[in-house]
Amino acid sequence: MVCSLKLTLPSSPRLNKAARRSASLRAPIEHSRAALFNRGEDGNAPSDVLAYFSLEHILLEGHCFDEVSGSPPRGLQFVLGTAVNPSQFDTIVMANLGYFQLKANPGAWVLQLREGKSKEIYELSGHSNTEQSKNDSIRVLIDSFSGRTIRVRVSKQKGMEQRSLLSNDNEEEGGIWNTISNT
């Protein structure tokens, strides 16, 4: 989606491009005949500026917590996609606030745990500010330019309570660091 914006700017003061927009929009400049950064530096800048912005993505933001411990699952990975292409975008849950963000566009999306350790160790156990869900996925509708912020709760699967996403499961096999530390 390309949007045009015509601005009438005074040429004498120094100005920077700062479009007021929702934080959930990713809209870089598509085309402009005049530089939009540090306007007025040379004193010869035109007063009318026409710029085209391209809306690339709307953010899907969220917070994720382990249902048992209440803390963020450090290193948990999500994928966002559609029924046809389930893995278009991916992200990792941040350890401090359980925050994650994914690029999206208007439409219906499917959020699920990424194949591998995330899906082996964890399962989805609850969510809010979303649409319906299946056992292993959550449907999310992006229906405005404001994006969407969701909350996801996960829990470790039976038998996986002691496993960690960040630990190396093959530590007993060793590696160069284990060889150096054991000698």
How is this structure best described in words?
The chain has 183 residues and is mainly beta. The protein folds into 2 domains: 2-54, no CATH class; 58-156, Immunoglobulin-like, CATH 2.60.40.10. The protein has 2 helices and 13 strands. It has helices spanning 117-121, 176-182, and strands spanning 2-8, 25-26, 29-32, 48-54, 57-66, 77-81, 89-92, 99-104, 107-113, 122-128, 133-134, 137-142, 148-156. A hairpin with a 7-residue loop joins strand 6 (77-81) and strand 7. It is elongated, with a radius of gyration of 23 Å. One of its GO terms (molecular function) is UDP-glucose:glycoprotein glucosyltransferase activity. Residues 163-183 are annotated as: Disordered. InterPro entries: UDP-g_GGtrans.
Write the layout of secondary structure elements.
Blueprint: E1 2-8, E2 25-26, E3 29-32, E4 48-54, E5 57-66, E6 77-81, E7 89-92, E8 99-104, E9 107-113, H1 117-121, E10 122-128, E11 133-134, E12 137-142, E13 148-156, H2 176-182
